[in-house]
Amino acid sequence: MIRFCRIGIDESEKMVVENPFKYGGIVTGPYFADRAREISELFSEMRNLGRVFLVSPRRYGKTCLIFNLRGKLKKEGYRPVYLDLNAYPGLASFAVAVTEKVSKALESSADKLAKLISALKYLRPRIEVGPDGSLAAGVEMIAPGREALPALLEGLHYCEQLAAKKGQKLVIAIDEFSDLAKYDGQIVEKAIRSEIQSHTHIGYIFSGSSQSVMLAMVRDTQRAFYRLGRIMELGPIERDEYMKFILKWFKKGGYRLKEVNFEVLFDAAEDVPYSIQRMCNILWEKGRSTRAITQKMVEQLPMIVARQDSAHFELIWQGASQGQKILLMALAREQDPRPFSKDFQFTYGIGPSSSIKASLDSLVKKGILYKMPAGKYKFADTFMRYWILNLAEADSPIPHI
């Protein structure tokens, strides 16, 4: 494991001026950190047009992973299509989107598309005129607000038929698939499985951030997606590999790092890629003028981010009950909190376990805490923990509930 780093300027290399540590959006190409193994595994599954349930906590980079996979798929002659369920509040809009996106991925002629779609029962072509007078074919519901599920199934069936007709291999990635429940989940699950289980020209990636929901979909013997495809859980990037990525960019930027312990950064981020990228982004900017990075600069990063997000954390804090605030302070002070243990409850004067459980459930529902599959609780945003610790420094010991 790489812990201490000493890097000097290599004048033979062209210095990078642009900050390479991107976060908060889709990151691709050389700015995408590692994940070579995961991309290789996903590509292998899609080469055989398999079905993969990609599961990870938020901010682990699953969407970026899918977009980087798309580039590899395109180079190999596959036609990738990406949809995010967050963008489609109703089943009808999802049915329209999947049909339209697949149509445009497989057929560029507006006239041909219009003819193909016009044969459908629940969906019809919509001709759009561009600013330059060019024509494009879209899709719309024949009866908006009605027959949404039949329209979705018809659209999926049409996608398979069109891929077969074109002799193309299609890969459909549906992000935030755990949100399927908003469409009357289990009824829709059964209908989707019934349709796609016979598809031979389409590979599917179903990705989601709600681990418990996604895993229940696939592992519950009573659910429609039981054993429909492989479960791929996306964990943290290996520290050694991530360290190589970070050092490579600082070296290209001509930065001097003398005996800097980056383990502090990884620990503070709890290995969440988004948080690592964000702190490295700040570190790059802090050292830009001198091209020098010190240990003190690295150690200051968590509190810098916490202060940047202070207004957001303050709003969350104001919405918490007094009991929840006391519990959050206690959780923030522990590296490995065990809120149901007698030692934890005695140390912080909280309890009983039933009230702690109720508070934890509420905090998870609010998105403040995240419950791991193993049953442990952690802050959904690791920087909120630092904000609370800073808040607690000026306070007296935690009072009893």
Describe the structure.
The protein has 401 residues and is an alpha/beta fold. The chain has 3 domains: 4-24 and 237-308, no CATH class; 35-233, 3-Layer(aba) Sandwich (Rossmann fold), CATH 3.40.50.300; 311-393, Arc Repressor Mutant, subunit A. The protein is built from 16 helices and 12 strands. The protein has helices at residues 36-47, 62-75, 91-106, 110-117, 148-166, 185-196, 211-219, 239-252, 263-269, 273-286, 295-308, 310-318, 322-333, 342-348, 353-365, 382-393, and strands at 4-7, 51-55, 79-84, 123-129, 135-141, 170-175, 202-208, 230-233, 256-261, 292-293, 369-371, 377-379. It has a 5-stranded parallel β-sheet, sandwiched between helices. Strand 6, helix 6 (185-196) and strand 7 form a beta-alpha-beta unit. It is globular and about 70 Å long. The two termini are 43 Å apart. The model is unreliable at 9-13 and 396-401 (pLDDT under 50).
| Structural class by sheet pairing and helices | alpha/beta
What's the gyration radius in Å?
25 Å
What are the secondary-structure elements, in order, as H or E?
EHEHEHHEEHEHEHEHEHHEHHHHHEEH
Give the overall form: globular
Name of the CATH homologous superfamily of the largest domain: P-loop containing nucleotide triphosphate hydrolases
Taking the alpha carbons of the first and last residues, their distance comes to 43 Å
CATH architecture of the largest domain: 3-Layer(aba) Sandwich
Tell me the fraction of residues in β-strands, as a range: 5-15%
Number of contiguous helices:
16
Report strand order across the widest sheet.
3-6-7-2-8
Helicity level = 40-55%
- Number of extended strands: 12
Query: Quick one: CATH class of the largest domain?
Result: Alpha Beta
Q: How is the main sheet built?
A: 5 strands, parallel
